[in-house]
Design a protein that fits this description.
By secondary structure, the chain is of the alpha/beta class. The protein contains six helices and ten strands; from the N terminus they run βαβββαβββαβαβαβα. Bound molecules: adenine.
Length: 234
């Protein structure tokens, strides 16, 4: 039986899903409020993790230890790193990595956490496929892309920083602040996961204007997809 952990970093990313669920149990842990119950009869735990990698990783561990979730889905917004991925479009992660980890002094590739044995965290193939087909069903007017998401404890709003990230990790689709930590913690616990992000800005000098303007609509695109896809996971 599935039990799906659904994480949004911010309230705006999970508020609609929370309002649609039947809550059976509420748990406060590590300053996070875990809502356990069902969403369209599917067992779920929905939680706002807070922003950044530590909050995100902790949140997954609590979902694993205390709720025994079988899948983890991260829903939210991101800054685009690809000129053909526009505000409002959706990116489903193929894999994720940290763009801000640097142990190159010890010979590790940029982004790789020493002694972990992997640079990237690969999302679950079935969850990717379901996310894409759900997007085509519920958001037919929205373009959905499948690609690499890079994370760091940085809101990227400087074109030089964006360029550096792209030079370091060519072909990355979008950037945000939790996906790789959620993926990392899921990977350590051997739980299938996928990161789903709708684009709120272009991670450049227009980001501080675009982000507040498009955050809500983007967060809703992603959440609508998640609500649909959980009903179709095998
Ligand atoms: N989330 C949404 N936009 C972002 C950006 N530009 N950088 C980091 N996280 C984001």
């Amino acid at each position: 039986m599935h039990k799906i952990g659904i994480i949004g970093a911010m309230e705006i990313e999970v508020e609609t899903l929370k309002s649609h669920m039947q809550i059976e149990n509420t748990l406060e842990k590590a300053s996070m409020t875990f809502l356990e119950g069902t969403l369209n009869n599917i067992p779920v735990v929905i939680v706002r993790s807070g922003i950044g990698k530590v909050n995100a990783g902790m949140c997954v561990q609590i979902l694993t230890d205390l709720f025994h979730v079988t899948h983890v889905i991260n829903t939210g917004v991101a800054g685009s790193l690809n000129a053909s991925i526009d505000i409002g479009d959706i990116v489903v992660s193929t894999d994720t990595l940290y763009h801000d980890v640097d142990a190159t002094g010890f010979g590790y590739p940029l982004g790789e956490v020493p002694q972990l044995g992997t640079l990237t965290f690969t999302a679950d193939a079935e969850m990717i496929a379901q996310a894409k087909s759900s997007c085509e069903t519920v958001n037919p007017e929205i373009k959905v892309f499948e690609g690499r998401i890079v994370s760091g404890d940085q809101f990227v709003s400087n074109p030089q920083v964006k360029e550096t990230i792209l030079n370091n990790f060519p072909g990355s689709y979008c950037t945000e602040m939790e996906g790789a930590a959620i993926a990392h913690a899921s990977w350590l616990n051997r739980i299938p996961f996928v990161i789903i992000r709708a684009i709120s800005d272009k991670a450049d000098d227009s980001a501080h204007m675009d982000y507040p303007a498009f955050e809500k609509a983007a967060a809703e695109h992603s959440a609508r997809l998640v609500e649909h896809m959980i009903q179709h996971l095998a």
